[in-house]
Amino acid sequence: MSNKKILILPGDGIGNEVMSEVLKIIDWMAKTRSMTFDITERLVGGTAYDKEGDSISDETMQIALDSDAVLFGAVGGSKWDNVERDKRPEAALLRLRKDLDLFANLRPAVVLDALAGASSLKLDLVKGLDILIVRELTSGVYFGQPRGISKINDTESKAIDTQVYTTSEIDRVSRVAFDLAKVRRNKVSSAEKSNVMETGLFWRKTVTELHKKEYSSVDLEHILADNCAMQLVRYPKQFDVILTDNLFGDLLSDTAAMLTGSLGMLPSAALGPVNENGTRAAMYEPVHGSAPDIAGQSKANPLAMIMSFAMMLKYSFDMHEDSKLVEKAVQNVLLKGLRTADIKDGAEKIISTQEMGNAVIQELKILTGN
Ligand code: IPM
Ligand code: MG
């Protein structure tokens, strides 16, 4: 049915193990749902640096540009701590984001019923939680110029990072947040530091104007980013969509992630602008990192990677039913008490990465009769 081109970038650490479980699901879908993807796999991160001399080669970058979607595992590890900055594993991630213009990062934090007890917050605070962080991903202090470390004199040096945002950069990510809020609970909380930063003040003003012009039916609140972090652990259910910049989004999304009990459960999507033929560049990635400490031990939780694939089906390929099917299979596996070590919460059975992947396939078979 579909001949969508997917670039698979497993990366470093547990990236390979969790990606293998997604590949099993893709295989199953090809066999049973007459849905085939055109898959290319390449190296990225430290593994690519070791073999190809850069954390992402120009050739791989070109394949990413020519793909319908990129599925990304994880990069990084202390092994590459001393590699120069522009060749470090993380540089590949930043290049993919920038060169594909993936400005809108969707990071859902959803507490599944079966896992509510795994959160470090009290059960009633997180049960049923469903929030979405929309993080600006291609600008702000991550990319602003000037930046660098330089000498002032023999004894003093200085470091500069620049936070910069333009009207259109704020507008486009805000539109994504407002549009998503409309099909959720219709509320956007825009987080910045307008009490201290020029960019914060400008962010607030720009979001306010766009809201007035195009989205007045959506509830909009402005919240200082520090207060937002506090409110996330005090009473997270007050939020629906949180809209924020690149750096605050990095921090707030880790906070929100932990409300759900484990980073091993959280998928994400990074979306580019919609082009003339109605498609957009996109990359899907679990929020967890490469976890070198458990790499190669079959302990990693593949569910965030699997749910990232489910997000791909939904946001890139409009395969809403298949996306829901994968999500449902994951939920059922958890309801049966199957757990990887990171989400263990008592007496449940601990299973390996591969067993978890197989359990999801088993559920898919049960759900579809295939
Ligand atoms: C994330 C990560 C990255 C970021 C790192 C690995 C560059 O923390 O995706 O949240 O800071 O954006
Ligand atoms: Mg982060």
Put simply, the count of helices is 12
Order of helices and strands: EHEHHEHEHEEEHEHEHEHEEHHEEH
The average pLDDT is 95
Low-confidence stretches: none
User: CATH superfamily assignment of the largest domain?
Assistant: Isopropylmalate Dehydrogenase
Bound molecules: 3-isopropylmalic acid, magnesium ion
Overall outline: globular
Distance between the termini: 18 Å
**Total number of strands:** 14
CATH topology of the largest domain: Isopropylmalate Dehydrogenase
Task: Tell me what you see in this structure.
The protein has two domains: 1-103 and 272-370, 3-Layer(aba) Sandwich (Isopropylmalate Dehydrogenase); 110-269, Isopropylmalate Dehydrogenase, CATH 3.40.718.10. Helix 1 (15-32) packs parallel to helix 12 (353-368), helix 8 (225-234) packs parallel to helix 9 (246-259) and helix 11 (320-335) packs across helix 12. Strands 2-1-3-12-11-4-5-10-8-9 form a ten-stranded mixed β-sheet, sandwiched between helices. Strands 6-7 form a two-stranded antiparallel sheet. The model has no long low-confidence stretch (mean pLDDT 95). The longest helix has 18 residues, at 15-32. The chain is of the alpha/beta class. It has helices spanning 15-32, 46-52, 58-66, 89-99, 123-126, 167-182, 198-214, 225-234, 246-259, 303-315, 320-335, 353-368; strands spanning 5-11, 38-41, 69-74, 104-110, 130-136, 144-151, 157-162, 187-192, 219-224, 241-244, 269-271, 282-284, 338-339, 349-350. The structure holds 3-isopropylmalic acid and magnesium ion. 3-isopropylmalic acid is lined by residues 90, 93, 250.
